Every structure is written in C-alpha cells, then in structure tokens.
Amino acid sequence: MKHFSPIVLSTLALTGGSAFAAQYLTAEQAQLVIFPEASSFKPATLQLNLEQMQQVEKLAGLPARSVAWRVIAAYKDDKLLGHIVLDEVIGKFELISYAVGLLPDASVRQVEILTYRESHGFEIKNANWRKQFSGKTAGSGLKLGEGIANISGATLSCSHVTDGVRRIAAIAQVALKK
Hints:
Helix content: 25-40%
Number of strands: 8
C-alpha cells in the first residue's frame, strides 16, 4: 500500500471537485486590466434596499439575487473612472468567477473571466466573445441571441455569464450611475 504525506492528501482533497479549474486573473489583476489608467482602487460598499432590488429585477428581467455586492471604485487622481463588480454564476455544474467593469454612465466597459471551473465551455474566456459586452447597458442588447452571440458547446456558460452581466448592468443603472 502506497502512503502519501498529509500535504499531498490535502492538495488532492482541495482539487478533487474539478480537475479543470483555471484561474486566469485575481480580482486585483482584473482591476488593472479593466482600468489600466487608474491611479487608485477603493472598495465601495453596495447594499441594495428592497426598492432597488425590485428595480433591478424589472430592468434585468432577473432576480437581483443579493442585497450585498462586492464593488471596487476605480479613480484617476480624484476622478471616478468607474466601478468593477465581482460576481460568480453557475456554469453547467461549477461556479464561474468574473469581473464586470462599468463606466459612470452604467454602461459595460469590459468583462473579465477570473476563474473557470468547468470541463467545457472555457471559450467564454476568448476576448472576442467578451468584447460583445462593451458599451452595452441593462436595457440594450445584453441577452444571448440579442446582442450577445452563443458559443457552441458553451451554451450554459454563455447564458449564465450574460445573465449575470445584465444583472450587474441593472445594478449599476439603479445604484451606481452618476
């Protein structure tokens, strides 16, 4: 019988859920990719009230899902460049972590995939697919097949990330727009 050290066993236990997980960016790296011109980033507390949650649901056509959101404000000196909202959605079976960069007018600047844990559908990491979100708002073309193209073999990942971005764009419209 072969014996493994506790370190090897704990590493195997931690990676047992998905052998296909790939971390592309940390939240900090995503900040710099989305807003490279920023001189500082500051955590911004975002707690939606009941009225805001109802507005988000109406605008996005999806439940607001959460009261609290992880938001980072990007600044160039004292000027607000925009916000980054960090979120996770389920792919087919596993979570997809992503970041959405938003301009002060609540339009999407950029979407970055942080961690992808599924065995298929990783093509959503492709820059050409993610570029489709740029410039869109909650009410303009943020639906699969209506402004966002599907990727064959990645339908659930495409659909769920698109829904997540639409929800975040609605949150930006309701709670972050300047």
